[in-house]
Amino acid sequence: MPTNKPFDELALERHAFNMRRMICETIINNGEGHGGPALSCADIMAVLYMNVMKIDMDDPTGKDSDKFLLSAGHKCLALYAALAEKGIIDEKALSTYNQFGTPVPGHPDMTKLRGVQFSTGSLGHGLPIGCGLAKAAKMQGKDYMTYVLMGDGEHGEGSVWEAAAYAVHNKLDNLVAIIDENGLQINGTTAEVLRPAPFEDRYAGFGWAVKSIDGHNLKEIYDALNAAPFEKGKPSLIVAKTKKGRGISFMEGNINYHHWHPGKEEQEKALAELAAMDAALKEKEAAK
Amino acid sequence: MAVQDPRKVFEKVFLEIGKENPKVVGVSCDSAKGAGMWSFVEAFPERYVETGISEQNAIGIAAGLSQQGFIPVVVAINPFLTMRSYEQVRDDVGYVNMNVKIVGSGGGLAYSTLGSTHETIEDIAVMRTIPHLTIFTPCDGYEVEQAIRKAVEIDGPVYIRMPRQGREDLADPASRHFVPGKAEIFEGGDDVAILVSGTLANEAREAAELLKAEGIKATVANFMTVKPLDEEAVKALYAKTKMLVTVEEHCDRGGLGTAVAEVVSSIRSDKPLYRLGIPEGSKEVGPYLEVLDFYGLSGKKIADKTAALYKAL
Question: DSSP states of B207-222 as a string?
């Protein structure tokens, strides 16, 4: 599949940074939010929206645009930030996050916000809907791709596996599933809570074509997404190894930041770290 | 009156609809043959989506197909679609108003020999609270045809509680004109109104005849559309008669009786409303009509109960 832009690491770093800044500022301004999960997938979302997906800006979820489903809907701040960074929505909308009447609630709602392909929130719904979108493309002879981002803990839901079987049986090679594997869920590590076998083995056993990547390495993300379909006639899975809370030192890999309620001290620390990241990026940008 | 097998009616009509409307897609959970979709499948294999025994997945897939302009019609045995996939129907179809048609084969006690996992007496209760969803409960061949045709015409989600047993035509099909959201009134007088949805419509009419012989004049109102309920018809019957009796092949709470109670509860009146149905936790097994009779839902028992209640007014 063609990309919409050639790889530009520095530009992508800037996009991913901007998204992390939006995610953190939105939570700081509103008092709470799923910070760890959004930061975990921010790099993947930046590459997808800024460099991979073919999006008709006049009709971003329309019949010919590539489709993106955030099956793990609680990571919505990463989606909102990607939509703002792409210019599909105005970043100002984020200031209303979780407020009465907001278009950007704690789970994405297609009836409230432009750019949201499908409302999600209950886990295990995205891959079946993605199968429907991918199957529709096959039936209609359309060439859009369907990307579904799932969490690792989400894989406790049986409906994921119903869809995983369907995608293989129907040869949906226009479907790309991405697992944001940060290894943490609410009650512990995924290894502690429920992890019968590595995702790579389970999906390969179902018949998917699988790649495993560093989910914070922009080049690896870019290469994997652009290599899809990995095999003709098979759905593609990218297992992205990530860190929950990536980018903010005290949140990174820390189970306590699934839902972040930043106190004053944490707010200041996070903003200071973002400012330092921004400064470092500016130096790199100036040197270019 | 003629008796038509609902499955055969569905088979014939769905094939016709397939020819008429290229957007219609058949989604099957290993159910296309059992539900009467096979003629469509053979005629339009490219519009046949088989998910295997995975109802949650089937609803999600239907939602995706619908977003791309198809009109998916999902078939499976009733409780697996309405209850196993309830949350998918709620989140991925109802709240987001997807143009998906859900055909649950065998509502009520249709699978009366297969026990409580297959009997479906809670579906209306749970589906009734899903936004945008229209609910049809056809009772005979005419109504099955109308249900599937109107469901495809409606731009939005529809749940059809499909009967399994062939029952006598409720009336001469040529004399009927189904309008979604409107009750069909069989005028019989203003002592009692029997409000019925779906498969017990024949029993309700039989009860009205039996009551007539006892000097009790009963009007029967057939609510093939349970949602949106024809509230005006309910109010008019409540005003005109001395008592209402609801009859349904469903749990006696949460279904038509409850929906009617919701309408009359805000009307200042001392007229009673009685709800006849199946107590929660039905586990009785046996031939369909025998199990109905056990629950007091034969025409004779509906008449007896109604007469006793009426005489006690």
Answer: HHHHHHHTT--EEEEE
* Whether residue B214 sits in one domain with residue B134: no
**Which parts of chain A sit beneath pLDDT 70?**
1-4
Across the interface, whether the CB atoms of A166 and B95 are under 8 A apart is answered: no
B53: how many CB neighbours lie within 10 A of its CB?
Answer: 13
Q: What is the CATH number of the domain that holds B10?
A: 3.40.50.970
Per CB-CB distance under 8 Å, the chain B contacts of A118 are 63-64, 67, 92, 96
Residue B283 has a pLDDT of 83
Compare CB distances from A159 to B57, B65, B66 and report the shortest one's residue.
B57
The CATH code that applies to domain A9-287 is: 3.40.50.970
User: E strands of chain A, at which residues?
Assistant: 67-70, 146-151, 175-181, 184-185, 188-189, 209-214, 236-241
Please say whether the beta carbons of B124 and B254 come within 8 A: yes
Is B93 an interface residue toward A (CB < 8 Å)?
no
Average pLDDT of span B163-189: 96
Would an 8 Å CB–CB cutoff place B116 in contact with chain A? no
Mutation site for B-interface testing, chosen from A120, A127, A150, A162 by largest number of B Cβ within 10 Å: A162
| Percent of chain B at pLDDT exceeding 70 | 100
Considering the domain architecture, whether residues B154 and B202 belong to the same structural domain is answered as no
Asked whether the beta carbons of residue A136 and residue B49 sit closer than 8 angstroms, the reply is no
Indicate the domain borders of chain A: 9-287
- The whole-number pLDDT of residue A2 equals 45
At residue B30, the pLDDT reads: 97
Query: Which of these, A148, A214, A217, A137, lies nearest to A177 by C-alpha position?
Result: A148
Interface confidence, given as ipTM, is 0.95
Helices within A108-217 (DSSP H only): 126-140, 158-169, 190-193, 199-206
Domain that holds residue B42: 3-168
Chain A residue numbers with beta carbons less than 8 Å from the beta carbon of B54 are 159, 162-163, 165-166
- A129:B56 CB<8 A: no
> Which of B23, B56, B61 would you mutate first to test chain A, the one with the most A CBs within 10 A?
B61
**Percentage helix, strand, coil for chain B under 3-state DSSP, each rounded to 5:** 40, 20, 35
Paired tokens of B201:
């419509």
B161 and B186 belong to one structural domain: no
Task: Report the residue from B52, B64, B87 with minimal CB separation from A132.
Answer: B64
Rounded to 5 degrees, φ, ψ at B238 are: -65, -40
Q: Give the pLDDT score at B1.
A: 82
Residue B49 touches partner A, C-beta closer than 8 Å: yes
Residue A5 is predicted with a pLDDT of: 74
B247 shares its domain with B188: yes
Select from A63, A132, A165 the Cβ nearest to the Cβ of B65.
A132
pLDDT digits 0-9 by tens, B26-72: 999 999 999 999 999 999 999 999 999 999 999 999 999 999 999 99
Q: Looking at the structure, do residues B13 and B153 belong to the same domain, yes or no?
A: yes
Q: Are residues B209 and B158 in the same domain?
A: no
Question: What length does chain A have?
Answer: 288
Q: How confident is the model at residue B154 (pLDDT cuts 50, 70, 90)?
A: very high
Mean pLDDT value of segment B207-236: 98
